[in-house]
Amino acid sequence: MKTLTDHLAQYAAYHRDPRNLLSHFIGIPMIVLAVAVLLSRPGMDVSGLWLSPVALVALASVLFYLRLDLRFGALMGAVLLFCVWVGAQLAQQTTAIWLSAGVGLFVVGWIIQFVGHYYEGRKPAFVDDLTGLIIGPLFVAAELGFILGLREPLRQAIEARVGPVRLRQRPIDA
């Protein structure tokens, strides 16, 4: 079974251009929120809680993240709880509001992702391994932690495998 370092290093290999990383800080949260919104229907209010398919997806995701790392798992749990809450709020609106918010976030988020990968000069990680779809949000959380000076041994272990984020950017037409 892959470790946290294994997963993040594999994903990081596709994300060494700073412009691509920046696109992920914007696009991935939009996509995660979009999925939460879109999976919030059908749903029902049960004692003040909105129960819908997103609850099961979020629970399974959090269990996966917790298995990899307790601290990141707890952080991802909080992020997903927020996304589930937003999704529930939008799911209880008109179909037009719910669907336009979910589809809009999803499409714009993916456009941002693909622009980032244009700069990277490499396809998205999930093309080669579908686990990239669940690792992407965790990768963004880890990169934010690294920027804040947290989890330095993990950053060093990842960079030992795939190298640091490039300081010089690849020319656009290369």
Question: Can you put this structure into words, describing what you see?
Answer:
With 174 residues, the chain is mainly alpha-helical. It is built from 7 helices and 2 strands. The protein has helices at 4-12, 18-38, 53-68, 70-91, 95-120, 132-147, 152-162, and strands spanning 44-46, 49-51. β1 (44-46) and β2 (49-51) form a beta hairpin. α1 crosses α7 (152-162) and α2 (18-38) crosses α6 (132-147). The longest helix has 26 residues, at 95-120. The protein starts with a helix and ends in a 12-residue tail after the last helix.
List the helices and strands and how they pair.
Elements: H1 4-12, H2 18-38, E1 44-46, E2 49-51, H3 53-68, H4 70-91, H5 95-120, H6 132-147, H7 152-162
Antiparallel strand pairs: 1-2
Helix content: 55-70%
Main sheet overview = 2 strands, antiparallel
Kindly estimate the percentage of residues that lie in beta strands according to DSSP: under 5%
Low-confidence stretches: none
- The side-by-side strand order for the widest beta sheet comes to 1-2
The 3D shape can be described as: globular
Rg over alpha carbons:
17 Å
How far apart, in Å, are the first and last alpha carbons? 37 Å
**Counted beta strands:** 2
Strand pairing plus helix content: what structural class?
mainly alpha
